[in-house]
Amino acid sequence: METSLEDVGYQLWAGALLLCDYLLHYGDSIQLQAKHSGILDLGAGLGITSIVAAMFASWVICTDYRVDILAQAESNWHRNKWLLPQVKCEDVLFKVLDWNCGDNFHIADKNNSNKYAFEESHKQILHSTNTILAAEVVYDEDLTDAFFKTIYHLLLYPPAKNVLVTLEKRIVFRAENLDVCSPAYEHFHKNLDDLVTVDEGPVRFCAEQISTSFPQYFQYTRTKEMVSFK
Asked: Which GO terms describe its biological process (predicted)?
């Protein structure tokens, strides 16, 4: 059984649980880093990473590209926030962010009744965020390209930001070479290599693969294909 590209946001992926484990294990250091700042969650889907992030950050902006998915994430937040052992932020913002739009953070006009649209007052909050989360966003090459363009745009604004990415390599069989590979992961890594070699402009980028040996708090199968980057 496969999940269509349009509906990937409605599935809870193992990579999101891996990122939640990371947040829970390193929560104290994340809380110190985000003491007067917040966390931006890209492609948040059902919102579980945003819910866990709310335990440690001053504010959380949960984003996805579809209003219906955001509405489900918001419902999940309101139903589960009372179960958290601690909540650092008072509330989570849920906003539409389409990586394929030239202006990712399109500001709604005053007559726009869509509560999930970014408003002018959110600009400063957005740019002052110092931690960005992205779980299981690597599955389509065009979307991966759009993701990196969005990341590049965000990292241009101070303060310095950490981006945490978790994913599970999708292994396929390549008939022409009679071997297995992960095209989506390879394309992700190419984009990552391109980003860190940027040598012009106001900022510099660095990236590293980080160990996934931290404790497991959620119930899922943590395979060797699951990786994380910072």
From this structure: methylation
